[in-house]
Amino acid sequence: MVLISILLCAGLAYFFAVFLKNKKVGYSLAFTFIGLFIIGLVLLISNEYGHFGMEKVTTEKTYQIQSVQKGTNLLLEKKLGTNGKESVYVYRTPETAKAKKPQTTKVNSQVKNVVKTGNYKNATVTKKTTRWEYKNGFYSFLFGISDNNKEFIKQTNTFKVGNDWLVLTTKQAKQLQKKMNSKAFKAQMKQEGEAFVKAEVTKAMMQNPSMTAAQQKQVTKQAQQAFQAQAQAKLIQEIKNK
């Protein structure tokens, strides 16, 4: 509405100054509309650059997330550019689990990503977004033609994942997968794993000589899980230190 008023005032000021025969009245009206033209222009500029008539509105939504790789608990960070100073996080939601492309956080200097690891029941991302919105319908009516309602200001994405999740860059994830799929690594893990499990079972039997077969099976299972967790943690640390 303000933009239309500016154009209308400019047209009327010109009309009264040029075509009205009574120049005294014509110039008076022309100056009046020039004044209104200037006021409208100031309001328009104030809205465009100072967000006059608008206020900051923050919304917060939480989504459950899934790993981009099925069967794993993995949150990927993708470095951008040659210096790697900017990055996005790659993930899926239950609704987009079958989509061709995974979801990513926005590439924007005003977007902040935070990752928290802890004893969380579900892996989630909370998006806290701040935008400029018109204070009421009156200001929306005045400046709505500018198409700047809900203008983005900033966003904070807070990821909360369990202790069993891995947070790796895409490069580290590729290195991890390549290492774990190599025949040499698998053979090494098998040998070291068998030795670890045997030592744990022997230790448990020394502490409890009357251990039943079912108890031995349980100790073996626990030892295998412990070894896998230790081996994976060691491998991940080696990759992160490169």
| Sheet of most strands | 4 strands, mixed
Please list the strands of the largest sheet in the order they lie side by side: 1-6-7-5
End-to-end CA span: 60 Å
**Envelope shape:** rod-shaped
Gyration radius, in Å: 33 Å
Unreliable residue stretches? none
Query: What does the average pLDDT come to?
Result: 84
Let me know the number of strands.
Answer: 8
Write up this protein.
The protein is rod-shaped and about 120 Å long. Strands 1-6-7-5 form a four-stranded mixed beta sheet. Strands 4-3-2-8 form a four-stranded mixed beta sheet. The model has no long low-confidence stretch (mean pLDDT 84). It is built from six helices and eight strands; from the N terminus they run ααββββββαββααα. The two termini are 60 Å apart. It is an alpha/beta fold and 242 residues long.
Blueprint of the fold:
Layout: H1 2-19, H2 23-50, E1 54-64, E2 74-80, E3 86-91, E4 103-104, E5 111-118, E6 124-134, H3 137-143, E7 151-162, E8 166-169, H4 170-181, H5 183-207, H6 213-241
Parallel strand pairs: 2-8, 5-7
Antiparallel strand pairs: 1-6, 2-3, 3-4, 6-7
Q: What's the quick description here?
A:
With 242 residues, the protein is of the alpha/beta class. The chain is built from six helices and eight strands. A hairpin with a 5-residue loop joins strand 2 (74-80) and strand 3.
List keywords for this structure.
25% strand; 49% helix; 242 residues
